[in-house]
Amino acid sequence: MSRLHEIEVFIAVAEAGSFAGASRRLRVSPPAVTRAIAALEDRLGARVFNRTTRNISITDVGQRFLDSARRVLSDLDSAEREAMGEVATPQGHLSLTASVTFGRSALAPVVCGFLAQYPRVSVSVALLDRVVNLVEDGVDVAVRIGELPESSLIAKRIGTVDRILVASPTYLAAQGGLTAPGELKRHAVIAFTGLMPNREWRYRNGQKPAVIALNPRFEINDAVSAIDAAVQGQGITIALSYMVAEQIRAGTLVQVLQEFTLPPQPVHLVYPQMRLMAPKVRAFLDFAAPRLKTVLQDLALRQAEP
Questions:
Q1: H and E: helices and strands count for the chain
Q2: Most C-beta atoms within 10 A of its C-beta, which of 45, 138, 185, 205?
Q3: Handedness of CA 157, 143, 238, 201 (dihedral sign)
Q4: 92-160+265-304 in CATH: which number?
Q5: What is the pTM for the complete model shown?
Q6: How many CB atoms lie within 10 A of CB 80?
Q7: Do 92-160+265-304 and 163-260 share a fold?
Q8: 3-84 adopts what CATH topology?
């Protein structure tokens, strides 16, 4: 077993936080990960991880070794890319992720343009309405909507979206408009679970955040289906502004309780921290950021309203 392989496995375990996560990331068997860490510890004469039946934690020795190990791999990676000419020409495989609706409407067209400009790069996109662990799942770049938790990820802000309530003019004509959040309880609510967890609507009451519990008439985990039901006059639904900008522009949906909308939510491109960024990642960030920013501006409600 090579010392370089041991270092690669050690870094993968440290970043994934588990032997199983490192196994998936490196696409090797769990026993191979265990053997590599055992060989490294024999070589160093000290433990690099403390293990229990439930989790692992890095030791002081392991933490000191981690920085040096990362430098070794980074320098080797840089030397290999220079030898292959990758520094000048982005190449290789790029892994991306975003929410389902944003990926369909905004990210996919940008990726197609990126592929046309960089023929030596291939791309896989995972559209998921859940947060992905970029390091553990081997993802290069993600689109994240909403406030970001504290993490080691690097974030590049590309715009904002609003979380709003919408209904069709025909529904409101038949059922009446709304002037206060409490009136939602007498209306048919279409709940997209990705934006209305626990059947609650969060809003702004003056300068303070507030929440109201609702009993949805129709609950679904797909944003497009919820929006379609609202267009058909089935009730009031929640959506992110970019999802319904075209419908608002066309007049098939209108915003309700607009004065109670929470402040805009940020949209970021996020990627793992690295000492030397791969050219394919840098090229995608430089290509995608201004284009996605333009898409979000074009779909902003202030431009979508008649």
A1: 12, 14
A2: 138
A3: negative
A4: 3.40.190.10
A5: 0.67
A6: 10
A7: yes
A8: Arc Repressor Mutant, subunit A (1.10.10)
